[in-house]
Amino acid sequence: MSLSDPIADMLTRIRNAQQAKHELCVIPGSKIKKSILDLLKEEGFVDEIQTVKNGSFDDFQVKLKYDTNKKPVIRMIERVSTPGRRVYIQSSEIRPFRNNIGTMIISTSKGVMTGKRARKLRVGGEVLCKVF
Question: Which of 6, 20, 32, 62 is in the most buried spot, having the most CB atoms within 10 Å?
Fold first, then answer.
């Protein structure tokens, strides 16, 4: 099975697992997915990420985070730039998302980072996704 957009697949797996109240979510591995997951962990949206061997490939096992009422911490996670419609943003156009509690994940020339960090470093790039 070939996926045209592996990042959208990863976000959908997280969304579906949270809707089904699963504790863990398994995602096929890649470098860009690892960097996005690391940012999600750093920003407090997921608990932990483990690398699991799947034959000769690596998968990521993500422990999802819920609040005290068993509601998912991630209320919304959406893909912005797609293979058919790339969305780029300049550093001066990066604005706080959802009153600064949301996070924009951007792929820049200096690596994958949050919108806040990209604005601070004055670099623009491709908007991968928005998380709230």
Answer: 62
| Domains in the chain: boundaries | 6-131
The CB density around residue 62, as the number of other CB atoms within 10 Å, is 25
Half-sphere exposure of 43 (CA within 13 A, CB side): 23
The reply to whether CATH 3.40.50.800 applies to domain 6-131 is no
Predicted TM-score (pTM) of the model is: 0.94
pLDDT of residue 2: 53
Rounded Cα gap, residues 36 and 41, in angstroms: 9
- Tell how strand 111-114 and strand 46-54 pair up: unpaired
Distance separating alpha carbons of residues 41 and 17, to the nearest angstrom: 16
Instruction: Determine the residue type at 123.
Output: V
